[in-house]
Amino acid sequence: KSEKIAIFHKTDVSKWKELISLFDKTKETFGKIDVGLDKIVINNAGIVGQLYGMLDDSLEEPDFARILNVDLLGVTYGTKLAFQYMKQNDPQGGVVINTSSVAAFHPTFNVAVYAAAKAGVVNLTRSMAQISQLFGITVNAVCPSVTESGLTSHSIGILPENWWSSVNFVVDACFKCIYDPKTNGTIFTVWYEGIKEESFENYHPVFQAMLQGQRQ
């Protein structure tokens, strides 16, 4: 068994073959898709893109495709590959955590394309959770607000204090996804004051009946 606890493998998550290479390298190094606690894949890569991009009057092609490819297509590819590799485990199973954003739930005109991609991540997560437990897999999403990190340090003092969430709260939300096997299809938003589990009770009766049948 490898004594390594982490490796770096340069990957463009929007490129299918590069993601396959990442998964293969992980399996080659560690023996399985495993970080020592559980079989875990966290699809975390994301970019915001140009602020107010939808209001830009330039006729230059915007970078919307790049935002959607990284933030939504990359998560979709990563989730699909996680299922493929986790189904090969003996026994089958694993944990998939997709990073979305509170922007998925709230109109955010200054980063509208980013918000659209993150909303897609939420519904991708909930959709895959309908079938995931047949393979012993759980799929959940963590949706932070602006989080303290090196990537956001330039915004300190600019954004209101109550817009920020702690990295510790984000980690706590991930731990909920990892350690509670009943947590599946759950969407956690992470705010200044802590973690909130989002409720989705507005199903059409046809879908509500289908979901109730799955839960029985």
TrEMBL record:
One cellular component (GO) term of this entry: cytoplasm
Keywords, alphabetical: NADP, Oxidoreductase
GO molecular function: oxidoreductase activity, acting on the CH-OH group of donors, NAD or NADP as acceptor
SUPFAM superfamilies registered for this protein in UniProt: NAD(P)-binding Rossmann-fold domains
Domain of life, source organism: Eukaryota
Pfam families: adh_short
Stored Gene3D superfamilies: NAD(P)-binding Rossmann-like Domain
Family recorded in the similarity comment: Belongs to the short-chain dehydrogenases/reductases (SDR) family.
Protein name, as recorded: 7543_t:CDS:1
UniProt source species: Funneliformis mosseae
